[in-house]
UniProtKB/TrEMBL annotation:
<feature type="binding site">
    <location>
        <begin position="591"/>
        <end position="592"/>
    </location>
    <ligand>
        <name>substrate</name>
    </ligand>
</feature>
<dbReference type="GO" id="GO:0030246">
    <property type="term" value="F:carbohydrate binding"/>
</dbReference>
<dbReference type="InterPro" id="IPR005195">
    <property type="entry name" value="Glyco_hydro_65_M"/>
</dbReference>
<feature type="domain" description="Glycoside hydrolase family 65 central catalytic">
    <location>
        <begin position="305"/>
        <end position="678"/>
    </location>
</feature>
<dbReference type="InterPro" id="IPR005194">
    <property type="entry name" value="Glyco_hydro_65_C"/>
</dbReference>
<dbReference type="InterPro" id="IPR005196">
    <property type="entry name" value="Glyco_hydro_65_N"/>
</dbReference>
<dbReference type="Pfam" id="PF03636">
    <property type="entry name" value="Glyco_hydro_65N"/>
</dbReference>
<keyword id="KW-0328">Glycosyltransferase</keyword>
<dbReference type="InterPro" id="IPR037018">
    <property type="entry name" value="GH65_N"/>
</dbReference>
<dbReference type="Pfam" id="PF03633">
    <property type="entry name" value="Glyco_hydro_65C"/>
</dbReference>
<dbReference type="InterPro" id="IPR017045">
    <property type="entry name" value="Malt_Pase/Glycosyl_Hdrlase"/>
</dbReference>
<dbReference type="Pfam" id="PF03632">
    <property type="entry name" value="Glyco_hydro_65m"/>
</dbReference>
<feature type="binding site">
    <location>
        <begin position="340"/>
        <end position="341"/>
    </location>
    <ligand>
        <name>substrate</name>
    </ligand>
</feature>
<dbReference type="InterPro" id="IPR011013">
    <property type="entry name" value="Gal_mutarotase_sf_dom"/>
</dbReference>
<keyword id="KW-0808">Transferase</keyword>
<dbReference type="InterPro" id="IPR008928">
    <property type="entry name" value="6-hairpin_glycosidase_sf"/>
</dbReference>
<feature type="domain" description="Glycoside hydrolase family 65 C-terminal">
    <location>
        <begin position="689"/>
        <end position="723"/>
    </location>
</feature>
Length: 727
């Protein structure tokens, strides 16, 4: 039996302010953004951190739970799959003297929300009252276990301010009929299935209410409704303890209901204290392997810890069927779809701090390789063209039309034209191989990804009368310019992809000839095709001008209208909204890092001082219309030794999710931007780089940073690196 003191300890956040994000009061205009900022996740379950509120006679945490991989296609004309809503397992209602808690002006001032990042825990504190001003002090906590990812825990502690008060507490599971078809509902267990896919969901629940440490039996009013009533005593403390097990079934023969009951049975034995202790141990292990410490800049330290908290909570190394969406599991934007963000902005973090998670994310791309092959074939090419937006099968899930900022219908061409995604996936595969030396992955999955993406590019590039290969009709990272020819980013990444595939052919032939024989036979890959690949790599147009040292972003870019972005400082909307789509497309205004992104990924492609020249040229033309942009600029600026400029980019990226100056995170945190914060610190300021047989450092710390310390794993070695500012 657990006494109230134990609950009290759990509800007490760490006293180290470097590990805390805290906000008080209530602002309805910013509530959705704060729900994303204070979200908790373990890579399988994500729960938004909405505040505790009381309306309509109830006190309720209006959190929303997302389950990784629980996709369905709604029955509408667009038929775009997305993550589906799941029941809210945190619902609680309280009445005092028969009167519900009511809203009172100024109540928000008593409310406090604390994200304890060290423990992966959200804590709230409130003082609420009924119409007769009978008050109750509430403290709550909820987690989703990083140790047992199907498990969620809620603790609620309440202390009635007056004695001899009739108290009624009701707990429930709400939203049982939203977006899912019910299969089975019984006391403490429910099972549903999605409407148009084979996915199934089960939730098993167990609750205990204790008054001063003594269990109080509940009155069950329905399969998922519990009620308790008692008369308060002075100083009396009640605590509600709720454990849930949430499971996903992906096949018809799966039994998620049994899995949920079994999981709940396992954690009921040690109880919530055991669940909490295992969860905290798992977070300690993650922080030990991934923490970044900055001395001399508290704001930077907080930004890094916040980024790492969400990065560590976004991945699940045990599930190779899912990846990390653009907003992770903290919100609904982009319907839970996966973009190039994962491979370019997130995989470096996981490769160097959590290779098991990195492997699982890359195995998701291997499992969706058939979908990539089908997309390439459907567009008339060979090999594998990955979906620009991917859900569970690897099929393209990008919408064909959206409503633009000017409220007009806009055709979306990314799904067909933003093809650099295939090279981005290949880049992540090669980085993983360099960072881990995982031979089994390379032989069983990575090599096939590299070969099939190289085959796509060799099919996609066409020889012209000039004797050079061209790739026409694409979109680069700069999405302001569509249907362009010879995107420097796309073409150079495609060439790199082909060359790495040829490298892996040589590696397989030399070290694992039987593997090569089987794989090449299955793919129908012969020496004649490999020779054609080499020809494409040797002749593809890159847009580089040796006389100026500049890459032309795409054919004809230099002839477009130059617009001085300095004339638009202080704007609150993207440049394409300011200028209009037509003028933007005819200008040199760049949405986000494009050639600069190429410089960040493949710096060796920029000879002599051409890296600095390209950065200077394109940085002044970039409107940073994407949350991805500043991080890439920050990496490059840091490597170039422009540390104060890099720090500005670091601060700008940090502000996206940590500041309330804009409501841009209503739909979830920008997980790629958070990955970019780590990249700026480690790849930018520390100057870390991966090579075939070693790691390298070329540090340039901002003047205010006294030290920068971080951990990495490389080839099964765990390294602790600490850099000290030169005096």
């Amino acid at each position: 039996m657990t006494g109230p003191q134990s609950v009290d300890n759990a509800l007490t956040p760490t006293n180290d302010r470097d590990w805390i994000i805290e906000e008080g009061g209530y602002d309805p205009l910013r509530e959705a953004s704060r729900g994303a900022r204070f979200a908790i996740s373990n890579g399988f379950l994500g729960v938004r951190g909405a505040r505790a509120l009381h309306r309509g006679g109830r006190w309720v945490d209006t959190s929303r739970t997302l389950v990784a991989g629980l996709f369905d296609t709604p029955d509408d004309e667009r038929a775009i799959p997305g993550l589906v809503a799941t029941p809210d397992w945190l619902q609680v209602r309280i009445s005092l003297q028969g009167e519900p808690l009511v809203h009172r002006p100024g109540d928000g001032e008593s409310q406090r929300r604390i994200l304890d990042m060290r423990r992966g825990t959200l804590i709230t504190e409130d003082r609420l009252s009924n119409a007769s001003d009978v008050g109750v002090r509430l403290r709550s906590l909820h987690i989703v276990s990083l140790d047992q990812r199907t498990i969620g825990l809620q603790l609620l502690q309440l202390e009635i301010e007056q004695e001899e008060v009739e108290v009624t507490l009701k707990a429930s599971l709400e939203g049982l009929d939203i977006g899912l078809v019910s299969e089975r509902v019984e006391p403490g267990l429910a099972v549903w299935h999605t409407i148009s896919t084979a996915r199934r969901l089960a939730i098993a629940v167990g609750l205990t209410l204790q008054i001063d440490g003594q269990d109080i039996p509940a009155t069950r009013t329905g399969p998922f409704h519990w009620s308790w009533s008692w008369k308060s005593q002075r100083g009396q403390v009640g605590s509600l303890q709720r454990l849930v097990a949430i499971t996903r079934g992906d096949t018809e023969d799966a039994d998620p209901g049994r899995q949920a009951l079994d999981a709940l049975c396992v954690v009921r034995k040690p109880g919530w204290p055991g669940v909490m202790a295992a969860h905290e141990r798992a977070w300690i292990a993650r922080w030990d392997g991934s923490d970044v410490e900055v001395e001399g800049d508290p704001a930077a330290q907080q930004a890094l810890r916040f980024a790492l908290y969400h990065l560590n909570g976004a991945a699940n190394p045990a599930d190779e069927s899912v990846s990390i969406a653009a907003r992770a599991l903290t919100g609904d934007d982009y319907r839970g779809h996966v973009f190039w963000d994962t491979e370019i902005y997130l995989l470096p973090f996981y490769i160097l701090t959590w290779p098991e998670a990195a492997r699982a994310l890359l195995m998701y791309r291997f499992r969706t390789l058939d979908g990539a092959r089908e997309k390439a074939l459907g567009m008339g090419w060979r090999g594998a063209l990955y979906a620009w937006e991917s859900a569970d099968t690897g099929a393209e899930t990008s919408p064909s039309k959206v409503i633009g900022p000017d409220r007009k219908v806009v055709n979306v061409r990314c799904g067909k034209q933003e093809q650099h995604i295939s090279a981005d996936v290949a880049y992540a595969v090669w980085q993983y191989w360099q960072g881990t030396g995982d031979e089994i992955f390379l032989r069983d999955a990575g090599a096939e990804i590299l070969l099939e993406t190289a085959r796509f590019w060799s099919s996609r590039a066409q020889v012209d009368t000039d004797g050079h290969c061209h790739i026409r009709g694409v979109i680069g990272p700069d999405e302001y310019h569509e249907s362009i020819n010879d995107s420097a980013f796309t073409n150079v990444m495609a060439r790199w992809n082909i060359l790495r595939a040829l490298d892996v052919v040589g590696l397989l032939r030399e070290r694992w000839p039987q593997t090569w024989e089987r794989l090449s036979g299955r793919l129908g890959l012969d020496d004649g095709e490999l020779k054609q690949w080499r020809s494409v790599a040797d002749t593809i147009v890159t847009g580089f001008d040796p006389s100026t040292g500049l890459f032309e972003q795409f054919a004809g870019f230099f002839a477009l209208e130059y617009i001085d972005l300095g004339d638009y400082l202080g704007r609150s909307v993207p440049m394409d909204v300011v200028l209009g789509r037509d003028r933007t497309q005819k200008s040199q205004v760049v949405k986000q890092a494009d050639v600069v992104a190429l410089l960040a990924l493949l710096p060796d492609e920029f000879p002599d001082d051409s890296g600095a020249k390209n950065f200077d040229y394109y940085a002044e033309r970039c409107g940073h219309g994407s949350s991805l942009s500043r991080a890439i600029h920050g990496i490059v600026a840091g490597r170039l030794g422009r540390t104060e400029l890099a720090l500005d980019y670091f601060k700008g990226t940090s502000a996206i999710d940590l500041e309330d100056s804009q409501a841009s995170i209503d739909g979830g945190v920008h997980i790629a931007g958070l990955g970019g914060i780590w990249l700026m610190a480690v790849f930018g300021f520390a100057g870390l780089s991966l090579h075939s047989d070693h790691l390298a450092l070329d540090p340039r710390l901002p003047s205010g940073w006294k030290t920068l310390a971080f951990s990495v794993q490389w080839r099964s070695r765990k390294l602790k690196i600490r850099l000290v500012q030169a005096t």
